[in-house]
## 1
Amino acid sequence: MKILKDHSLQAYNTFGLDAKAKQFAAIKSARTISTFLKGNKEALFILGGGSNMLLTNNIEALVLKNEIKGIEIIREFKNQVHVAVGGGENWHQFVLWAIRKKLGGIENLSLIPGTVGASPIQNIGAYGVELKDVFVKLEAIDLSTGKKKVYFKNDCQFGYRDSIFKKKLKGKVLISKVVFRLSKNPKINVSYGAIQSILKEKKIKKPSIKNVSDAVIQIRSSKLPDPKVLGNAGSFFKNPEISKRKFKNLQQQFPNIVFYDLPSGKVKIPAGWLIEQCGWKGKKIGNTGSHAQQALVIVNYGNATGSEIKAHAERVIESVKNKFNIALTPEVNII
Ligand code: FAD
Ligand code: EPU
């Protein structure tokens, strides 16, 4: 394992922030890292694609960049297969692999940046599908012992943009492999109106998983900035969930409020709407600001520091709190 010192992380985070890692190593196999960890005393930090983090400081640790590869069908059933994927595989490339093999279940999650190993951490989700819907189990390496552990779906405490890996196990394990259940007879999920509109426009009556993936890519490309062009980490905040009583009071004050009723009885409000109502959409302050097409995304216009972006997030939180009495919580990991 080659260890580099004072290594710039600018190319390894989608905000494009120039923080440094005290030490840096790329991990190519679970076995190498297990062996290394048995004698390790350094503080460790796991890096995937850097698409859900805001680096406000240098990382005073050994940064382990997950590059464990491999996609393999490990079990075949009549209607489905189990696929084991190395944690360092690129998520979208895995989605494209599944589409080529005509295996359904993850097409609605097309074009989400980052690695497969990070996908269970916040239970990635988009357009009516969450990772937990196709998750079987994962293998992780305990960072304090180097031993392998297996976590099944019930162990993972999956929730909206949440799992045990963001709570009790945060920073404690490296997810080296994830096993997914994909379908040979995919059920198409076009519950999102925007997907239906595109299919209608293209006169597609019986959509394939490829058609759905293409529609998702089209929608995402129209409103989410490409990190290669404009640094960002996707939605900066989670969509808040509030009680029905609080919602009814808000609705009286703001009759146009956008909302979704949840099975739990709570109500979800799109944070993008709240932020836009506070006047932040498209507003630029110094090197940062809220994106003009999607107010939930905070962008780096070129030379922002992590602290500048964090200060912008704090301004947004404060104004949403003042106007709506709702506390936004960041989805992005602030380091
Ligand atoms: P990183 O940013 O590298 O890491 C995130 C956290 O996980 C860090 O705390 C890191 O230490 C830890 N970590 C990473 N890999 C491992 C591992 N193998 N083992 C243990 N810990 C690990 N997310 C959605 O859910 N839905 C979306 O629609 C969506 N759209 C996005 C659009 C854009 C343009 C961008 C930039 C981001 C978007 N995201 C979305 C967020 C992001 O893509 C996901 O959170 C993704 O899973 C992060 O993967 P990563 O490999 O980049 O993780
Ligand atoms: N809206 C506004 N103004 C805005 C943005 C949104 O008013 O500037 C309102 C609109 O009414 C819109 C609604 O919010 O219809 C929802 O917006 P959108 O469909 O863009 O989705 P979102 O709730 O902002 C969530 C996820 C995304 C995911 C999409 C699609 C969160 C925090 N974000 O965004 O995930 O791709 O739905 O399913 O749940 C991410 O996690 O990084 C991410 C991009």
## 2
Amino acid sequence: MRNYLVLTLITCCLLSNCTPKESITNVLISKEDAIEFKIDSILSKMTLEEKIGQTAQRGKSSRVKELPVELKEAVKKGEIGSFLNIMNKDDAKELQRIAMEESPNKIPLIFARDVIHGFKTIFPIPLGQAASFDPNLVQKGARISAIEASTYGIRWTFAPMLDISRDPRWGRIAESAGEDQYLTSIMGEAYIKGFQGDDLSSSTSIAACAKHFVGYGAAEGGRDYNTANINEFSLHNTYLKPFKKAVETNVATLMTGFNDLNGVPVSGNKYLLTEVLRNQWGFDGFVVSDWNSIIEMVPHGFAEDEAAAAGKAANAMLDMEMTSTSYQDNMKNLIEERKFSENQLDEMVRNILRIKFKLGLFDKPYFEPESDVLYAKEHLEAAKEAAKKSMVLLKNKNQILPLSTKKSLAIIGPLADAPHDQLGTWTFDGEKARTITPLTSFKEDGEHPILYSKGLSYSRDKSNKRFNDAIKIAKNSDIIVFFGGEEAILSGEAHSRANLNLPGKQESLISELHKTGKPIVLVLMAGRPITLGNIIDKVDAVLFAWHPGTMGGPAILDILTGKASPSGRLPITWPKEVGQIPIYYNHKNTGRPTIPEEFVQIDSIPIGAWQSSLGNTSHYLDLGYLPQYPFGYGLTYSSFEYCDVKILSNEINENGPIIVSAKITNTGNVIAEEVVQLYFRDMVGSITRPVKELLRFKKIELEPGASKIVDFVFSKDDISFYGLDKKWVVEPGKFKLWVGKHALDQTHELEFVIE
Ligand code: BGC
């Protein structure tokens, strides 16, 4: 809805036969137009240096105590538009005071921070939150993060990360919503709505930043910062989709990535930043580079020096430069040499000022004094709920979980009491002193007799000197609960791993514990799937808790003891071994699709066998073709039956919707949640289409014995694809649909035809 304001125009009427007089006219103009008028007026007064200043984002090292005089001077001259990571409130206030009182045009600064999955109250890592399949919960978490962060004057976060991530070796998969473009789009929308609130100008709203535009998650071999090669069709049909949705959700800003995409680093990619983002999608917020990503185009071999890099980024319409100073150092020359124009610069400044106006920073540049919202009771409750709903139960042999109250427990492992590590990656402001670990929660609960031995002091620990202690308490207990996984620092930016098994001596310790004959419940805390091949048969249950955040302990306690049933589902395909990567459910078919009955296993090949491809399809001789666990997979403490799966109404050929419905019944004994998933396949296309694509999902809660009809509604747009002629099309032909529990569940299949 457009908001209208009354603009009073004072015009001077000069008539030949009368004396000059003023006439006053009241005109109704939209709030948006009013902002543009104000920007025009400011731009007309700005010097070239001040305009370049708006494009500069600076930081201050936390090691430097005092605010450097040069920074204050630069703000006074109007040479800085934004700061990141100013966490001393007095410094932030002083810098804003200088901008508002002493700079030439009194343009407010915008303060930014990576508020990724919580500010003080930390929620599960984004990959975990995606596993909740619950966008409302994600939106609530982002709202809370914004409320907390804004008490420090932060009005801009560098989140959500919308990079499609199909390689768990890549450390930043922890920050993503996983491998699927639809789930990532829905989660992105939820974060943006949560961060930005209903009204961006409210003092608790913070601008979101969809990053990293685009393809950063497709880094070769999962090695961070590496080259991405994505063909045009996958780019549009997969990687760009979550960003398009973000723009439709009115995301205020976007960040470019570090990566080279198909030969052109994205920070200098005119096609993406101008043609797609601005011309096709109509984005009117601003784009920030990643940390030094403009000048990194020099080592990429895309620009000969920083001046050339600045020219390429600016000409592509990258509005603001994070930390490096290539715009500041070279923009004036570029304009003088006619390699860039002041009009283009005006557009960049206009984009930045527009967001500053929308955030209400011109009217209310200062933030409220700190209130008591940090770690508020309802924030902690929401963090606990998010942690509970993110956890994925992967294995539960003989229903060992939930733990029966009579049983004594041996709590073992490097992550049972690791308050810093359970917060996960990108948690600059989370505090381990405020974090509740599983060990603390079990002790406070007091329902189970417990013995505790760390066994290994941290996840990479290679010493077995504490093994005996752990084995001793295991022998004296009924059940072993092993808290293993990865320390927080092993995932996140620049933390790619080539091996995805449990680091250090964790597998050895689990093998030793297995010899005691006591059942083992493995609780994994990690930023990515962990390959479990060496130990999966030695443990009875596996609960994947991700890095669950501040309230991870109480949430794990509730799940393990059955106060809540696990309800998370995998947002990524879980490989058996690293050698299977990339492995993702929405792949294309081959001309020789795998036929389970014909699968040739390595040991079944006769010695001295003659060269033959018979029976061999696209699979590994030694690992087959199936993952450890498919996308969408997760167990509960109950069971669900699907019936009456049907197309309820089909108006798709008249451009109306299709409604698919299914009756879901809780056939178990406890209340639990089910994530009902709808997938589709376009059977034949002018370009090949994936074997399955997630189309809709719904998370529902059912009492034992209760049933619910779940309806899914979709239209032609939802099944269209970017085709050969560079247009979005829906081609006539047959489509299949599946309603099921995960991506490999084919039980309930439907079909429809587009004429
Ligand atoms: C990361 C960004 C982050 C920025 C600011 C970079 O290294 O790639 O995602 O927002 O730093 O901290």
## 3
Amino acid sequence: MSDIITLAIESSCDETACAITRNGREVLANIISTQIEIHKKFGGVVPEVASRKHIENIDLVVQEALDTAGMTFSDIDHIAVTHGPGLVGALLVGLSYAKALAFTLGIPLVGVNHIEGHLSANYIEHKDLKPPFITLIVSGGHTHLVEVKDYGSYEILGKTKDDASGEAFDKVSRAMGLGYPGGPIVDRLAKQGNPGAIDFPRACIHDDGYDFSFSGLKSSVLNYLNSMKMKNIDIVPEDVCASFQAAVVDVLTNKAIKACMDKGYKTITLSGGVASNSGLRSQMADLCHKACLDLKYPPLVLCTDNAAMIACAGYYRYLAGKRDSMDLNAVPNLKIDQV
Ligand code: KG4
Ligand code: ZN
């Protein structure tokens, strides 16, 4: 079989990204233009600003991907594009661009679910990884525990009932005046703090199911900060970060390992921006080792938003014969088990 070259576009949040892969798992170009510096001053992503920046960046990012891969449009076999979930205005920029490319070049268009993209990042890094396995997808917008039965076949075992885990990191960081995005900052400070200093709640940890809840934890951190302020007591930011992170990590690791054991699988993968968290990685590694489970996660650049993961997911959809037409729409709340 001849090689399949995929060009993928991702614009669901604040990264304008384009990647080119060979046979889904070999990355020839992975260009990411991040808008973090622009949104930082607002303390979070401003949707309207994100859409405008995507429009300004997308041509440059696509051209840079082609240059990096040493290719022209005539080398591309199909286009893959994120069409949800995400910010609708931001998604529409990438989607419209992808449709125009596919139409002009006369090649197939394949829509990709962003969450499916995140979990597919592991296929790029771990060449021998094959379904079935359990995956924990933890990002700014999502916290999902999913049974990957086959390529493109998913069952959601659990998800967050309220805030996503990354969102909790971002909100706690904001409340402490530490900056955006909060995850990497909290992670760094947590390394110097005492995780047992403050006893924050671990919601749902003893429930039978696999759902998560982080809004109570977030409120508990905010209450702690307020009460210390009222009492004129200085907080130790490192201890707050370490104690908060420990609460998030305890719940995530506990549920993921439980799901893997209950379902009889041997492999757990992590993905999404929060999969960069050093506490999560090391606690998962420890517990997986003890339970004789195999743990896999992508390198940092493939944890946060990128288009290589979309190309990989798009490639498997393409192989399965999935094609989308020019009326493919952006779906802000697209579910992974609807793919
Ligand atoms: O996957 P991603 O780039 O975007 C979404 O699809 O949401 O994830 C971004 C999220 C942000 O909430 C950010 O704070 C979090 O990932 N994040 C981290 C770390 N690095 C990024 N959270 C905890 N620890 C980190 N090291
Ligand atoms: Zn994402």
